[in-house]
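re: that chain from earlier
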Amino acid sequence: MYTRYLLWNFAGRQNDADGQSNNATDGNWLSGIKPIDALRLGNQSNLPPTITTDKAYNRLFFLPLILGLIGAFYHFKRNQKDAGVVGLMFFFTGIAILLYLNQDPLQPRERDYAYAGSFYAFAIWIGIGTLFIAEKLRKVTTAQLSAVGATTVCLLAVPVLMAFQEWDDHDRSTKTTPRDMAYNYLNSCAPNAILFTYGDNDTYPLWYIQEVENVRPDVRIVNLSLLGTDWYVRQMKQKMNESAPLPITMPNEKFEAGIRDVTYFNDSKLPGNTELKEVFDFMTSDDPRAKVEYESGGSANYLPTKNLKLTINPDEVVKSGTVAEADRSKILPEMDWKYPGNYVTKDNLAMMDILAHNNWKRPIYFAITVGNDNMMGLDKYMYNEGFAYHLMPLKPDTTASDKSNTLLMYNNVMNKFRWGNMKNASYLDHESRTMFYPVILRTFLSLTENLYKEGHPDLAKKVLHRYEEVMPDLNPYTDVAIRKFYLADLAFQLNERKTGEDIVNKIINYVSGQMNYFSSMNDDNKRMAGRDIQLCLSVTNELVKLTKENNETALNQKVTAMLNDYQTKFGAMFQQQPQ
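^ sequence. v structure.
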C-alpha cells in the first residue's frame, strides 16, 4: 500500500480509484512509459476512454522519483549525518508507521494522508537532486549557467510536470456534490423526521449542512454505525437543534457498554406475530424469568421470536401526516414482519425502542443507501420519496421493485433537489462518480418508471429530460451502463425516440471502448476482467433486442455487428468446461 502511494505521487497514476481491486484498470500506479507499464498492466496502446479521459490519469514518467533517488544518493554521499536525519524522517513517517500499525493493504478508505510526512522528506531529496544536476553541469559550463540550467530543467521535469498533470484532478472549486446530496437527503424527509443513515459518507455531509448551514435542523440524523455505542444512544435521548429527544425509553444502565451488546435468538415457539413493544420489554427486562441460563451459571436476555408486529392506530397515522386522509383506507390494521437475524445488536435494540414507542408521532426514514439488512426486515413497508425511504403502514405491493410516493417524489426531484453542478464541474472525485452518481441515476430511473406505470407519461418525460439536463454521461463501472439500458427502454416506451437513441449510443461508445481494451489483454488480465466482459456481452445482447423491438434499424445493425465480434473474441472464455 505504501509503495502504491509513493509511486502514485512520484511516478504516475492510472486513475483515482483506490487500487485495492487487484486488476489492470483500477487505481494502479503507472509512469506513462508504455513499454514499462505494459509489463504490469498489459497492452497500453488501446486504453479505453474511461482511463484516458480520467483527469486523474497522471503520467509523470518516473521523473520526480528518479530525481528524488538521485538526490538521496547524492545527499548521503555528501553529508551522511544530514542525510540520515532526512532518511529517518522518511522512514519513521512512512514505512515505520506501516510496520507499527501492521496495516493490511485493504483499507475502507485511502490512508495516504498517514504518510504525508514521508513524502515531504522525499520532496527534500528532489530539491537536493537539483544540486546534483547543477554540480554535473558545472563540469561543462559556468557556475551561474549550471545553476540556472539545473533549476530550469528540474523545475520543468518535476513541479511544472506535476502541476500540468495533476492540477485538474485536485480542483474542487466547481464541485458541490456532497453538500447538495446532503441537502437532498434532508429534504426528502417530512418535518420533524427521524432519518437513519449508515456510514460516514452518508452522515458527515448531513451533519455539516445541518450544523454549519442550518438546513433542516428539525430532522434528527441517526447514524446506525454509531447507534451500537452507549454514548451515542444517550446523545439521541437529548434535544438537538430543533429536534426533540428520540423516543428511547431504556434507562442508561440498560445499555451501557458490555450490557446487551448482543441479544441472541432463542425460539420460545410463540404463535403468530408478537407486538414489538412486548418483545422489546422482554429483551430489556431484568426479571430472571426473561433470561436464559447458561451452563456456566450466567444468564442473559434473549429474543423470544422473530415474528413481530406493530398494531396501527389510523387516527395517529393520519394526524401525524404519515398518511394522507385520502389514503386512510390503505392503512393496515397491523404491520407484521420477520426479524431477519439470529441476534439483536445494540443498534437494532435502540431502533426497536424507537419504533415501539414513537406511535407515529415522528416520520421515520432510512437513507436510500442503507441496505435492507439494516432495516430489520421492514423493507416491504419502505416507500421512496427521493433519497430516503419513508416507513409507512400501508399494504405492501409485492409486484413493485421499488415502491414510492410517486407524486411527492416527483415534486422533490423536479422542484426541491439540487444536483451538485455534476454536469459542469471541472472535476468529480471518485466518491461522487462511484457512489452518488449511481444513486442519482437509480432515483431518476425509479421515478420515471413509476410515473409511467401509474399513468403519468407526461411527468415521466419531464423527469427523463431533467436527467439529461443535469447529469453528465458517466459509467464508473459496467453496472451503471446496464441501468442506463433500462432508462433507454423507458425512453422508447414514452416515445422519446431521440433520447432513447442518445442513451443507446452512449452505452455503445462505453461498451466498445471497454471491449476493445479487454480484447488486447493477455489471458490472465482477461480472466480478472471476466465479470465486466460478461456484463458488456449481456448489455450488448439486450441492446440488440431493444433496437429490434423499436425498429431502430441502423442501431440494430451496429449492435448486432458488435455482438458477433465480441462473441468471436470472447466466446471461448465462457464455454462450458467438459466434466
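The two ends are 40 Å apart (CA to CA).
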